[in-house]
Amino acid sequence: MIRASEVSVGDELPPLSVRITRADLVRYAGASGDFNPIHWNERFAREVGLPGVIAHGMLTMGLAARIVTEWAGDPGAVVQYGVRFGRPVPVPDDDKGAVIEVTAKVTKLLDDGTVKVNVTASFEGKSVLGGASALVRPRP
């Protein structure tokens, strides 16, 4: 687990690339109970104006959080995490899926010992999450 003495404002976390396939969408739908057809039915997704089947927003959010939990070394060290959903992530019906690129940077050391980390997640060079940030409590 990361130690407070090892953290400075401006530190960049190791970047993360996350691949999402249609099979991942099926597994997530089963685990979450979110069977909205925009996440599995190409025809329906296009009929409602989407570019095709899209990843669940909460799945994208959760996968992006991995950059922080892996850096912290303990998922329990993340005491707060929030995002705004910016744009959908279309997931093609192939073996390659969609790749989300995630970066993060330490932006504040707070008086209570927590660290603020801003997270950026993008697909094909465009941001998919807005205002994504986490508060992490490193070990003393």
Q: What features would you describe in this structure?
A:
- Residues 16-120 form the MaoC-like domain.
- The chain is 24% helix and 31% strand.
- The chain has 140 residues and is of the alpha+beta class.
- The protein has a domain at 4-19 and 56-136: Thiol Ester Dehydrase, Chain A (Roll), CATH 3.10.129.
- Strands 1, 2, 3, 4, 5 and 6 form a 6-stranded antiparallel beta sheet that branches.
- Strand 4 (115-123) and strand 5 (126-127) form a beta hairpin.
- The mean pLDDT is 97.
> According to CATH, what is the class of the domain at 4-19 and 56-136?
Alpha Beta
CATH architecture of the domain at 4-19 and 56-136: Roll
Shape: elongated
Mean pLDDT: 97
Q: Please give the number of β-strands.
A: 6
Instruction: Determine the N-to-C terminus distance.
Output: 10 Å
Low-confidence stretches: none
CATH superfamily of the domain at 4-19 and 56-136: Hotdog Thioesterase
What share of the residues lie within helices?
10-25%
Secondary structure tally, helices: 3
What share of the residues does DSSP label as strand, in percent? 25-35%
Structural classification: alpha+beta
The CATH topology of the domain at 4-19 and 56-136 is: Thiol Ester Dehydrase, Chain A
Give helix and strand order, one letter per element, not per position.
EHHHEEEEE
Computed over alpha carbons, the radius of gyration is 16 Å
Largest sheet: 6 strands, antiparallel
